[in-house]
Design goal:
- By secondary structure, the chain is of the alpha+beta class.
- Helices cover 20% and strands 44% of the residues.
- It has one domain: OB fold (Dihydrolipoamide Acetyltransferase, E2P).
- The protein has a five-stranded antiparallel sheet with strand order 3-2-1-4-5.
Length: 112
C-alpha cells in the first residue's frame, strides 16, 4: 500500500468565516521551507568584484535567517467541534500527517 507522510507543525490557529458567515477555527499545519539567497552579478564585472563574490555569497549564511513555512494541510473545525476537543491544537505543536492510498488522512500528535 502506498502512503505519504508529512512531518509538520502547527503554525497558526485562528478564527475564520465560511461563505455563509459561519465561524470556523482554522488550524494550519506547515513544514519549514529552505530560504534561498541569490547574489546576482553582471557577467562583465571587474576582476576585483569577481574576487570578492565568494565572500559575499557566504554572508547570508553567517547570519540567522527568519524561518519560512509552507502550508501543507489546513483543518477547519466548527466552534462546537473545537470546544469538544480535549487537547486543543497549539502553535508549535508537531504532528505527522499520513495520507493512505484509499484517501484516509490521519493526523498524529508527535509532541505532548
Amino acid at each position: 500500500m502506498v502512503e505519504t507522510t508529512i512531518s509538520c507543525k502547527v503554525t497558526a490557529v485562528h478564527p475564520t468565516f465560511d461563505g455563509m458567515g459561519g465561524e470556523l477555527i482554522s488550524i494550519e499545519f506547515a513544514i519549514e521551507s529552505q530560504q534561498t539567497s541569490v547574489v546576482a552579478m553582471p557577467s562583465n564585472s571587474s576582476p576585483e568584484v569577481m574576487a570578492v563574490m565568494p565572500i559575499l555569497k557566504q554572508l547570508p549564511r553567517m547570519f540567522p535567517q527568519a524561518r519560512a513555512y509552507t502550508n501543507r494541510f489546513v483543518l477547519y473545525l466548527t466552534i462546537q467541534e473545537w470546544e469538544r476537543l480535549t487537547k486543543k491544537y497549539s502553535y508549535g505543536d508537531e504532528f505527522e500527517i499520513r495520507v493512505t492510498e484509499d484517501g484516509t488522512v490521519t493526523v498524529k500528535r508527535l509532541t505532548i
